[in-house]
Specification:
A hairpin with a 6-residue loop joins strand 42 and strand 43. The protein has 64 helices and 43 strands.
Length: 1939
Amino acid sequence: MWIPTEHEKYGVVLASFRGTVQHGLPLEIGDTVQILEKCEGWYRGFILKNPNVKGIFPCSYIHLKNAVVKNKGQFETVIPVEDSVITEMTSTLREWGAMWKQLYVKNEGDLFHRLWHVMNEILDLRRQVLVGHLTHDRMKDVKQHITARLDWGNEQLCLDLVPRREFSMVDPDEISVTELYRLMEHRHRKKETATPASTHHLFVHVKSLMSANLGEELEVFFHIYDGRENRPLSERFFVRLNKNGLPKWPEKTERQCTLFVDLGSSDLRKDVYIVVHIIRIGRMGAGEKKNTCSVQYRRPFGCAVVSIADLLTADSKDDHLLKVYACNTEIEWYQIHENIIRKANSRYNLSGSNTGLAVALQLLHGDIDQLRREYMGLFTRGVCITKKLGFSDIIMPGEMRNDLYMTLEKGEFEKGGKSVARNVEITVYVLDADGQILKGYVAAGSGEPGADEYHSLVLYHNNSPRWAEQIKLPIPVDMFRGSHVRFEFRHCSTKDKGEKKLFGYSFVPLMQEDGRTLPDGTHELIIHKCEENASLADCSRYLKLPYSKANLPTNSLTLKGNKESFWITSFLCSTKLTQNGDMLDLLKWRAHPERINDSLSKLKEIDGSEIVKFLQDTLDTLFGILDESSQRYSLKVFDSLVHIINLLQDSKFQHFKPVMDTYIESHFAGALSYRDLIKVLKWYVDRIVEAEHQDHIQQVLKASDYIFKYIIQSRRLFSLATGGQNEEEFRACILELFMSIRFFLSQESKGISPVTQTQAVFLRTFPAIYSELLKFFTVRDVAGFVRETLASLPTVVQADSPLEAVKLQCISKTVESQLYINPESRCILLPVVLRVLHTCLQEQRDLVMCARIFTSMLSLIKKEENGTVEPAVSEEVELIVESLLEVLLRTILEISNRPQPAGPAMRLQFQDVTGEFVACLLALLRHMSDKHYQKLLQAYSSKDDLRDFLLHVFTVFRILIRPEMFPKDWTVMRLVTNNVIITTVLYLSDALRKNFLNDKFDYKVWDSYFYLSVIFINQPCLQLESFSPSKRKKILEKYGDMRVMMGCEIFSMWQNLGEHKLNFIPAMIGPFLEVTLVPQPDLRNVMIPIFHDMMDWEQRRSGNFKQVEAKLIDKLDSLMSEGKGDETYRELFNSIIPLFGPYPSLLKKIERETWRESGISLIATVTRLMERLLDYRDCMKLGEVDGKKIGCTVSLLNFYKTELNKEEMYIRYIHKLYDLHLKAQNYTEASYTLLLYDELLEWSDRPLREFLNYPMQSEWQRKEYLHLTIIQNFDRGKCWENGIILCRELADQYESYYDYRNLSKMRMMEASLYDKIMDQQRLEPEFFRVGFYGKKFPFFLRNKEFVCRGHDYERLEAFQQRMLNEFPHAIAMQHVNQPDQTIYQADAQYLQIYAVTPIPESQDVLQRDGVPDNIKSFYKFNHIWKFRYDRPFHKGTKDKENEFKSLWVERTTLTLVQSLPGISRWFEVEKRELVEVSPLENAIEVIENKNLQLRTLITQCQSRQMQNINPLTMCLNGVIDAAVNGGLARYQEAFFVKDYIMNHPEDGDKIGRLRELMFEQAHILEYGLAVHEKYVPQDMRPLHKKLVDQFHLMKSSLGIQEFPAYVRASPVPFTNGSPRTYRNSVPSIISPDAGRGVARRSYPAVNRYSSSSLSSQASNEVSNITGQSESSDEVFNMQPSPSTSSLSSNHSASPNVTSSAPSSARGSPQMAEKHKHSRENACLSPRERPVSAIFSNPLDPAQRAPAHQIGDTTLPRSDPNLSAPDKASSTKNTRPQSPGPMSRSPQKTAMPPFTPSPTECQSTSLVSNSPVLSGSYSSGISSLSRCSVSEASGTELPAGDHLPHPLPPPAPLPNSISSSSDEPIRRENKTPPPYSVYERNNPRRPVPLPHSLSIPPQTDPPALPPKPHQIRTGSMKLDGNADPRVPRPRPLPRKVSQL
């Protein structure tokens, strides 16, 4: 039976439980569970992070923890009883855990690892806390460490700032809002600006000395040295190294490591150094033999220096290798470090190239105790402390130190009868008063223990040695008296014995007879002669002698004449001993009473450090003098006391204040002193007004707080001693004193007078007196004193007077004092404080101080634990509300609207003030109850005042909701703010309903209310869905969902409005719509009726709700552009927008209304708009500009234009699309996009407002600007023809205005565009068909197919990869068939991509002779509406021997909704058409195209446009070789057999046509071989011979002995052996298969040609040929492509050809079978027409080099086959041509018909997507595009033609073959004769041209297009006077419908 648990309520899961039992609850290790019931070893409960799922789990899996249960019963909550820090750690680590994994997913490795380390650290610390074995101090340190780590992690992960007090989180409901703000602000400031440490320490760890010439022990001394003042800053650190240069005691780390402590910030300078001196212990000379002498000497070795400033920038973990220098002469040893610092290179050198001292150096910052906590390992392992010379910047009381430092400076010695100078060594001893040597009190430095003696350096043969060695004598204070230091001088012999012979000594006593120690400074000591050690045994004998030359008696001439001297420098650092005689005189005043006056006077001159040393003794002395001689010395003692008190105000000595406090409490014994102190103080106060100099009086008042302490303590002592006698007298004295104070405070003075400054000084110290007065007076009495004292101040004071600021400071300290905390005193002081605050806030001055006072006041108001408020507190709140609420609101408004100050410090202060006032307002409102609100609202007598108040409140609340009001991680503060706001709004909404409805309706107040409500609901900190589950749960438990509460309030208020609702339609539609976008179902449910109401009221008012619709649409657009909504909304909006769902109540209501149709229509429109807007928003979130963004923008733009007719939105999206195109460098598309806006404007002077980035200007000016911008972009996009039309239109406008200057510029621009057309190359783009299938695609792409214009140089593989990158979740379909419904309806993304071929519209230009290719190329790839794609398939039985019998082609034609290029790079397919091409038609197309290619190459070769004959060689080889191996024979077998002719009688004409083409090909080949023979280089003759032989075999295989008569009698011979040259024509340069040549004198380039079906021998021959042109600088290389490659293009203008010749037996006999699978995946091979995939792999991209135009018709050539007249005419009448445009693939360049005629159809491309048999560059059947060529007539063969056979014209096409153009091909044989070069003056019949090349009828076509006004007016229409016979040229399509 399940029993509810009583105590077992909370537990932690110890092991994971799968929950496989019935009703089992799966548990993960570490989960926390709440237990509800128990039954036989099982618990029932839930996991705290998911309380909705309940289940059972075993008891053994749970570790129970103590917990407190709140709200027992069904809704009980469990709170674990544990340290709040532990609770926070646990919850925070859980939250971090999930986010930590996400960091790994996002690849944020650095933060991932750092957080991992911190989490592990926190877990370790958590264990320490849980174990509970820590001391109190250690626990405090651990908690501090934990909270610091938690805060760091929260900051790094952008989580909320946690308010804490003493490491524990605070509940914001349990403290005042002002206190909460202070905690948050303190933590935020601490986080932002870490206070720099004022104390620094240097850690030194000696590792080793590396040197080649070691062998002796070393002593290393470190010290800090000030290079500016040339003095040491610290004592020395001493390390001994062994003979190997390693520490002598490696196990004792304290002897290798030290901490130089107490460095000030001023010591971290560039000129402060670490100086290292190294001394060797050994022989006198470094090179002496080992056995020479056994005596050891201390000898100089080297010195190293490093600047401390370098350590600030260096990596602290790296070891430093210090260079060691030696001095050139030992005389310089004492200053070697100075020489190194000064870089006096001549005085030192490196002691060895490899000598270096390895040390670890690290600067540590902060207090020494803090370091002990942070670097615990350092201190526990052992480190010695090296102190600073002298006291640190801050002297701490209790610090014990008694160090005497002596520096052995120098000596002057006589030779002593020797020929050379002495080697002097000094031995130092410390002896006590009895003459005994003090053991262990001579220290060479820290790091080593003290010794009994010290031996100095020995400088070789030097009678004036300078040692500069510092030693420390840490002698105890009690041993100082009578002790002295003895220095013994010995000569160190270098002889065999090596003895040290004594020759003299010096001594110095440490303390003088009067108790003063040896004064600091340099002392010249007398050297007394002595040669026997025994003479020094009795020190009493020599202590009577003089020790210093400074204090020699006048009669001691013997010692004065002694030239030997020894200098030392001493420095005492002691907290107990003094060198100051005046100090000693004062302390011993009883011994010399006559000196008291002088001693008191000299006290002010004594150094402060001396006074604080003897602070207690000094104070005892002063009060002792006062007690004994009060009448005589009271004033002097008082002044001395004031001096000492003010001395402790100094930052250096401020830590001694507690010492004085302790003295007053425990040691002060002056029971009678209070009378003298009060008397003297009153005397000074009474003199203030008359005194000229106020300085001393101000010093007295500055010390008044401590003076009162002495007064009160003295009185207490007196009361204790006398039983409270003279109480009234004391009170009277105090009252009189305060009367004097009030009198001087009441003095008014103009400006800043001395009295005013004195008043300010007193006010600063006045609050410190309260606590002392409270010891003797009641709270009410003291409050009365304060009130009257403050009231005595002058009432009228200038605003800029310093007294006002000080007065506020005084009030601030008063409010913060113990006095104000007491409710009794507060009721007395509050009116005074409120009056001052009200005045300051009213005048907007001293706001910082006002905020501080206000904060302190409100933080004292607290509710009781049960939530009730005491009457006194309620009264206090009422007073504050009445006095300050309104002025506080005005202040917040004022400072929020004020511009923020410039400097960062000022800005910080400004923000602090705003935040503090806001916190004050919130605190005040939170304390207000119903009663307070009622009184407040009743206080407003007039409606206007109430209205202003409400407006103020609502405006301030809107300010409080701003995101910038608090830092982004202050969620706690924001939630408190929102809770206060909603509570206040609920109170004030009643006032709104009562006072401003019906006839008293006020729109402004209601509007302000609604806007506040909307902003409140939409603020980010209330969007609970974006929070983690734990955070969301906490907020809901504490505050509920405040958005729903406010939504209900909006609904309630709206219902009360009645007919006044019309005032808010349509203004409130947008705001309310914004509320519905919040993904909160309850909130949306509340808001739906409001929209129905709006529609209903609008319908009643105007009969429709157009306004509602318009506002709705505008707001939706702006909200989407702001990024509102997410994937959740997409699901909600899939069928209907959120305001209509998921609840259908609105729709149902609409269906019941009379206006249901228009309502439902509105819903449908808005739904479709929402789908597009959501797609747009999602696309815009992506980083780079891609097709998806552009396509989405186009979709939205068209929707606004066609369905909504919202012109302004339409124009906005035009410009958004334009910007996207510019960013993607789609300049042509950008131009077309901007044209949409341009078309909306007219050439008028109508003024236009400022819009987007356009200034206010006339319509004409804006249209002109747009024209110029569009022309510029057309130019950048190389779409110059379109730019020319706009140039003409603009020129017409300039001409009509007689603006000839701009007209001239425009004509020049137009001319430059023409030049660019002729001179610059244009890349021919690829086109790709893309199908987007599946429901996962955006709405504008879903289940649609598009044709896309590729980027420059972009092939199919690259395009496919780009699309897959844009849609990373898409699946690429591996077939080209139309998908079925399963694909359409799939919840996935499928992409189907293949290349398509454009079908140009402008066939008239393409078919016209004499139009250069670089002009034609524009019409091939622009204004394209239709595209074609061919797919081969077999119909019927497939013949394995000859597959071409059954090979059909399925040709698909796609028609777009707009032409390409346009406003997008892709447009949707509007219509698909499918036709089938028979095998016979296919064969005709293939051979026809190959013939055309051969003609072109022959023409180019003859006209010398081809500078390298290799292309022709390759083409001839490919055709002839393939034919010999059965190429054309396959077609003969397929179509010329009897069975086929019998079965297909209808194909008779086509068979005849095929036969004619085959014969024609043979004739062309014969002619081509003749031309080839003429131009072939010598090294290619063998190949040519082979081709001729193979050609004869080919003829015989075709059964051709003689050509038929119609071929022989062909009327199209070549003039002078070459095709005729036509005026203004630049023939197309290259054959698609023959690769690329280069324009002459232009761009040398490598040509790559395919030679796929050559025999192996021929292939090798051709592949190794390098042809060279006439010009030596033009070299063309030819490389064969792989033998399996295909020349099928991805891009042909005439893709009709789909079949190929049979496979060549020699080339690839089994190719058809090998590529069997390719036929199934025809069009998916990269860079390959689908049809080509049947047979071969695609051509390698490297082989698709750009084609260049070959030939230069402007250069006269010496051609033996060209007659003189032809030469003349060719040079004279041919327009100069520049190199043609670079084609992007060999198959793309257009080729003119072989026999020119004005009526022929010009092929737009040579090679189609036809299949290639066996991958060969083969016969008339390989890889050639179909070209529709009509029959042509030729001229007679002129004399001089030496070719063996005339070349036949193209044979006429049968009518059944489809043309590449949309117009029928001319079939008649009677074609006018072509124009020869001699007939250029005859009129040519008019031929219709496309719109951008329209030419009116003229006798001779002009070189430039005509003037615009001749062909168009306004928008490019034909002029009415134009010849009606001429077809009207079509203008450039610019309307959206035409694009």
